[in-house]
Amino acid sequence: MPRMVTLRCVPTVPERLHPRRGARAPRLVMLAMLLALAGCATDPSAEYLGGLGDPVRGAALYAPRNLGDTSRWAGQPAEAAVAAEQVEFLTQELATNPRYAPEVNPAVLQSLQTAQAEMRGYLGIAPGADPQMVITGLRRAATALREGSRARAEAALASPAFAAGPAGTLQRLSTMPRLPRTAEAAGMVASEFDRLERRR
Description:
Layout: E1 6-7, E2 10-11, H1 25-37, H2 44-47, H3 55-67, H4 77-96, H5 106-123, H6 131-146, H7 150-156, H8 165-174, H9 180-199
Antiparallel strand pairs: 1-2
């Protein structure tokens, strides 16, 4: 089995699985990368395959892990922030991305929109908040929390989008429950991207 080398939870490409080695190589590289990242708390839409992969596809493939049971992030507010950001990111991208919006089953987008409303309702995010503002705030908060700075995390969440306030949002991130509509959307989006992959 090829040897994996990792750095900051971003795997390198094993030499035996490099894409130039044949038509099956890209699929093998993808599998190897996903296996290497399986234990990492990572934001697939920000650094999917070390920045080499499609971030939308990365977020979709990771959806069952990150969103299938959000209660796994209770007590881990940084990881909960990443999960919440993923809901926003996927919903936004599947609605507007010129590559995916025309291809994705509308039921998948509807499921994600329901998950977005559920997540926003739990975290106290304003229903009409700009998705990019929410994504940016959650990503910055997650980074700050991982670096041990609650003050910077609160600063990242100090915007009108986070109607529960910085402290309230962090408290809710720390006690994340299982969100059933979010879990349902996670399964649907992963299955949809598998369908799109097989169709190609």
